[in-house]
């Protein structure tokens, strides 16, 4: 893969992850433990950042365990069907995000024309994801930024806390 394009991709995806790490880190501990919606979005973001970086997804081995639950068995504040097996601390989620940040950097820096031909393929059912490598990377970047924005909004609305914008990787979280 073209090296300048790899650098651009890492600059932007890394900045997105930096912003996610920053918003979770900026959340006061008491809000993190009591505002369940914030907690579940942070957990969901950490799990799926890692999951979408795992090629093939059948090799996914999360650092934080969860149980997949039917809708009627999920807490009201949760998002999605992956429910944490226990309450993880803010520090555990930040550590997981930092681990995934490094995993993402290695994935992007290791992209070759051959690697770009690989696919993120969950299974053979019609609703299963089956994306080319570049598309799952861009999908993951958008997913990460979407939930980062939600977390920022919750901090702003409830605590009037504003977190930093990152133009490129390393602006707010040293590379």
UniProtKB/TrEMBL annotation:
Protein's name according to its UniProt entry: DinB family protein
Species of the source: Flectobacillus rivi
SUPFAM superfamilies noted in UniProt: DinB/YfiT-like putative metalloenzymes
InterPro entries: DinB-like (IPR024775), DinB/YfiT-like (IPR034660)
The organism's taxonomic lineage, starting at the top: Bacteria, Pseudomonadati, Bacteroidota, Cytophagia, Cytophagales
One Pfam family of this chain: DinB_2
Gene3D superfamilies hit by this protein: dinb family like domain
Domain DinB-like: 78-151
